[in-house]
Amino acid sequence: MATLMVPENLVYERPHSFTDAPTHYCPGCTHGVAHRLIAEVLEEMNLTERTIGVAPVGCAVFAYNYFDTDFVEAAHGRAPAMATGIKRCLPDHIVFTYQGDGDLASIGMGEIVHAAARGENITVIFINNANYGMTGGQMAPTTLPGMKTTSSPDGRDVETQGYPIRMAEMLATLDGAGYVVRRSLHDPANIRKAKKAIRTAFEVQERKLGFSMVELLSTCPSNWNLTPVESLKWLEEHMLPFYPLGDYKVAPAVAAAKI
Amino acid sequence: MARELWEGNQAIAEAAIRVGLEAYFGYPITPQNEILEWMSKRLPELGRAFVQAEAELGAINMVYGAACTGARVMTSSSSPGISLMMEGLSYIAGTEVPMVLVNVMRGGPGLGNIAPSQADYNQICKGGGHGDYHPIVLAPASIQEAVDLMPVAFDLAEKYLNICCILIDGSIGQMMEPVELPEMRPVVRKDYPWAVNGAKGRPRRILTSIYLDPPEEEKTNLRLLKRWREAQEKEIRYKEYFIEDAEFVVIGFGTAGRVALSAVRAARAQGIKVGLFRPITVAPFPYKRLAELARQASAFLVVEMNAGQMLEDVRLAVNGSIPIEFYGRLGGVVPFPDEILSEIQRVAKAKLRADSDPIADWMKRMEMIAR
Amino acid sequence: MPAKGTIEVNDLYCKGCELCVAACPPQVLALDMERLTPKGYHPVHIVKEGCTGCAICALVCPDAAITVYREVTKAAAPVAAGG
Questions:
Q1: Which chain A residues have any C-beta within 8 angstroms of a chain C C-beta?
Q2: What pLDDT digit, counting tens, does each position of A177-210 carry?
Q3: Which residue does chain A place closest to C69, by CA atoms?
Q4: Domains of chain C and CATH, by start
């Protein structure tokens, strides 16, 4: 088998736009898959030397340790505002935020909505895993009705705790949004589609076609109390029906660009 | 350049633009709207960045992002808006990036009112947001002084990698005075060794305020403190009037200091040997100079448009060596020169004790005034 | 005749999550219960013949721990994992 391991036979290797650091994510958490897809896209588009990432508060707070690009660390929910400040001062650079559902859809709702409404030329990678991972699995704005979390121990009661928010659908209503889609990371086919969407989102920014966001349905095995493999199944059975995958906004200019 | 009649807020905005402001992010709030409005017209026409944010929270975090790129950036707000910005200000201080903040104070607490006040002295001079940090705070008393302090503010922010605040109140923001503005300077983006602007031909850079390892956070705090001590050593600014032969000294910053100057002049005309000390850097505070003056003067009279916030710093400087009297107006009330003159006359005649309680004494007198 | 492939797993990154084990089409992967990574996980390895170098393991790997090789034949020209 060793003779197979020669450069001409190489099919896949760790993206060079990653640093050497192992991630701090729990085993099987699909945050890592999302990171890897972004790294692959940055490398393929040759963007690492002019990209600035904006890390959130949440499990991905240390995202800046893993990408070989300049990075800043935002306050909880404020990544789109910080990205706005960076992008307005460096309009020809690529600026992306990486945010979880508590960060983006709860405490940062104002920032994300207005960044999209302004048509801010940034890319947002939004990880929806239906709970607050870092703080220990509390109820998130994306937690499904009836879903048990550490702050909805009897299951989310929509009568008292309200309903989950579908961010992609909501942001798609804004005229400033150029490209808003939802993808999932639960199987190889969907991971491929997710990567294609991430690539499109960065292309949209590169061509200055407005705000772009890829929402990624993601797993949280530790807080869901499931194995990584069971988590994929749970995502497929419970999250997909509530959060349908699809292209919620492809602005005419984006469609015309045929990315 | 010629002297022209300018409104305070607009003059401050134009001065910032002329000394190289690259980006402004703000949110409307009275009494500083004219800064935002001026920026909204001027910055786009100059090809620079302007965003009216969704809230002060968004504005300060846009400033945070812009500051990380090494751009000259500022925002402005007034009391309730500054409270909202405290989150971002703490992060900016913790990340050690420079910015200028113009704080046009109004009456509070809460929604308060839109009248001139100095009630947010403690908020900004003592840090404001969470964590151990001190912004540099400059308190001009006229539009010209505010204009002249704009380049100083940017230079200090960039030298000390800190927030530099221009602390004024609604009266300076909205009055009109003849001023000379600086010449238009070209914008020069400095290539700071810390700025995030794309890792081309260099190792990547990370700007963050998170140090999960407590000893690392401690080192960061010590680094901030070291810079702060250096600013305390090198950047103290104040103005003195009739100090040389003064037997007692009135102390006031900003508008209160300016009104007090009229009163001091009137008192001098009556032969009262009184001087005025007006701190310009209220943070770092001129403790040393005041300690020196406490050896010369027999008493201090502190005048503020708040309930004695700077008074605490003066008491720290004096350390009980001489009596301190206090006169304050609150909630957006600006004292008249006559009020301060009668305080000066009272202090000139009174038998004062160094261990008296200036706030208690003043509150007794206020029962008559604020009826 | 399917293409012949193999993988190399980097112990620095592999956390033994088994996502690749479940996803592997020819089912040739398993955790190596004889070994521990420096972080204390049992890393994945190939346990039997049949790897085609399809790179699906790398595609689902959250830790970019897997390098994939495939014998270059006319029938199976390499394609990037992300496609």
A1: 1, 4-6, 8-15, 18, 20, 22-23, 25-33, 35-37, 39-40, 187-188, 191-192, 195, 221, 227-229, 232
A2: 999 999 999 999 999 999 999 999 999 999 999 9
A3: A10
A4: 5-70 (3.30.70.20)
For residue A67, the SS3 value is strand
- pLDDT tens string B178-207: 999 999 999 999 989 999 999 999 999 999
Q: What is the CATH number of domain A14-257?
A: 3.40.50.970
pLDDT in tens, B64-95: 999 999 999 999 999 999 999 999 999 999 99
Domains in chain B with CATH codes: 4-234 (3.40.50.970), 238-369 (3.40.50.920)
Those chains having 3 or more beta-carbon pairs within 8 angstroms of chain A are B, C
